[in-house]
Structures are given as structure tokens and as C-alpha cells.
Amino acid sequence: MKKILLFIVSITICLFSLQVQAISQTISYDETDPERFNDLGIYFGDPAENVIVGYADMYVIIHNPTKLAITVMMYAAKDHCRSNFGNENYSTNFMKILGTYTVYFACVLENKIDQFNLSDEEKQCIENRIYETKSCIALNQKNIAIINKIKLQKEKEEISANLDYIFAARAKFYKKIMKFEEEAEEKRLNKLAEFNLRKNQTKSESDKIIEKNIETCRKYTFEIGTDPFLKCILNLID
Description:
By secondary structure, this protein is an alpha+beta fold. Helices cover 63% and strands 11% of the residues. It has a four-stranded antiparallel beta sheet with strand order 1-2-4-3.
């Protein structure tokens, strides 16, 4: 009988150790490197739960009540920028986390010069104005209005990525941000409580006893998996 119990305890200890490792990895990913999940093609959050907290000409603040839902929110931000300007070349390549579930995204126009009907030579002249040749002077003078539009676009994008500007946007929508953040955290805690309740309800009495014995022996500073640790548990079973 003791051998059977010893086998059960050994298996339980192994599972316990694996659970600890898994929890540690989850915390590490959650707090420091959520992009690793995205690299594996794992995306968190329901796109249908995305909420636009606020927006202006060159930015949008997105909320999703799921942790690590940054990629899901980013796609929503891209869609907003494109829809807002009616231009498929708009996207977002800058973000600032405003809360656990809320992110600021700046809109950016990709391929700025391609929106204009210009020849390849005209494009090259505009893109290489620092090294402007004689042949480009007349072309750039002709396209001065386009050059000024591109310059203004770049200035607006720089402003929308400025930390002071972002802080002002956060302050403007602070109450709404906090309301969504609190509701999302409450939802997460409720789910966690429900999970723990179901988990505890499904545990058998023998599992609870073994776990209690494991915790007791751990308090004696025995290393998990060693002979003294197993003997400690068997003594408690006796």
C-alpha cells in the first residue's frame, strides 16, 4: 500500500513542479514579452470586444478587456485610421500602452509620395532633395505644393508620436480609460474566482491531503523530489 501511495505522491510532485514552471513562464510572458506569443501565431482577445475610447485626427485609443490583446487592438487601430482618412495606405507603426487593457495608436501614412500622380523622375527628385541636382530644381519647384503636403504629413505624424501629446490625449480621456480598465480587471478577477472555485470543487479528498502534506514538508525546507521529502510525506500519511 505504501508503494502505491509513494507512486501517487511522486506523480503528484512531478505535476506540481510542472505547474509551478508553467505559472512562472506565464507570468514572464504576461509581464515582459507578449510578442513571443504573437511570434507563435497566438493572439489574445476577441476583436468584437474592441472599443474605441477616443480619437482625434492622427490617433486612436483602443480598449480590449483581455490581457495581451495588443495585436487585436492594433488591427482595429489600422482599420480606424484607414476609415477615418478614407485611404488604404494609412496604418499605425507607433503605440503607447496607457493601461493593462488600453493602448494609444498613432496613425501614419505609408508610401506618402505614391498618392500623387508623379513620374519616377519626379519622385526621385522629391525623395533626394538633400542632394538636389540641377535637373531636379525645376521639377521640385513645379511640385512645391506636393512637397509641402508631404512635409506637413510628416510633421503631424511626429506630433502624434510625441510623449507630451500622448499625455494630453490620455488626460483628455482619462475617466473613460479608467472606467474601462476597472471593468476589465473586475471581469478578469471574477473569471479567476470562478476558475478557482471549479478547480477546488473537482479536487478529491485524497488530492487535498497529498497537497497539504506536500506543503507541510516544504515548510521543513526539504527539497521537492528528494528522499527526505518523500519520507516526510509518507510519515504524514502514516
